[in-house]
D-cysteine desulfhydrase (Oryza barthii), 474 residues
Amino acid sequence: MARGAHQAPGGFWTVAAAPTRCWMAGVSAASAAGKIGSFLSKRPYAPPSWASHLSPAPSQTFSLGHFPTPIHKWNLPNLPNGTEVWIKRDDISGMQLSGNKVRKLEFLMADAVAQGADCVITVGGIQSNHCRATAVAAKYINLDCYLILRTSKLLVDKDPGLVGNLLVERLVGAHIDLVSKEEYGKIGSVALADLLKKKLLEEGRKPYVIPVGGSNSLGTWGYIEAIREIEHQIQISGDVQFDDIVVACGSGGTIAGLALGSKLSSLKAKVHAFSVCDDPGYFHSYVQDLIDGLHSDLRSHDLVNIENAKGLGYAMNTAEELKFVKDIATATGIVLDPVYSGKAAYGMLKDMGANPAKWEGRKILFVHTGGLLGLYDKVDELSSLSGSWRRMDLEESVPRKDGTVPSQVIHEEFREGCRIITCLDLDSACRISSTSLSGLIPYLACTFISINSSRGIKATQSQKPTNLLNKRRN
């Protein structure tokens, strides 16, 4: 077994992660990991040697995420013969900042600070993971954050609430402007951000605009850097090589970085993207623009295969998709978000079922891009699918802290606003009677009855004990 690889209980194999980013010049891995103040710090950046020809290259980056994120075997059911799926856990790259957006924001926030910005602007859907991550990252480095969030026409004039990503955004004090989907479609994200930027400039602010999803050529470096991280994890493990990388696609920057990095590095894995909005043609064109912006001579169609997985539409799910998310969590312990990775994994396994020969014998790295908070927006739809619950069955013979044994209740009902309890056992009768008389649990009546020749008690409890207690005291 290669150094750095181990098998965990239950058959999970883990590729050991490097203790920290080993390329930090002049600082050993161990000392960098333990250095106080290294997190949330700005530092010089040097591209991987295989990407040194790409331009423009960032000169600085902020440490915002907990990297490297682990890679481990993902025991998915019903895989083709000889197929292995491993999972890159970018969902645990942080807490409030979890997910793929963090890697892009490390470069974008460094650029914002370098340009002297005092606030940032970005745009997204009402449950945008990117907007939540941007709001947190901005506060981490003492910048204000302005979010333009897209919602339905019926809700645009209402309080958006505190569900999922909105809760975090509002807790950290992000300024939120709502627009309807119709307004968003007519005006566009770029024009909306420019409009807000103009207003802020007139107020004397210094805004920096981050595009939807953080997906521009600068943000692309986040996943070029992720490829270097994966490459290093493979090197220290020694016995794992990936044939394919599978990931969700929502704005294009993540797949551009993965595809470009995989091609240029030693990885050489084929990238498969499952689009959760728009169509493959749009994303091939957008990715081409991003890699052209880095002066690469490569073609997006040669780098990445993009398949449509949007289903009903962005952030909309079929019952089958949600059941899939639940079933995968139950089977493997991995919780996928319903908007991005859930649809990508669903699309991947569906394709494996339809075209098993395409995937047989291949080692696949699935990149979990996070978005767990988005699940909270689906609680109503997931309620019927989630695990069951029950009240714990406590044996009547189990003594309580006061040394007593609970009464043997044989009947309980509500009648005319009152609780009716009938129980056997003279000791129970005495306890209920004394409790009633003490005024702790007032009863309307407390009388002994005969049930099957056994002594018992029937007590009627008021649902408004305070009023009843006052009457009894009076």
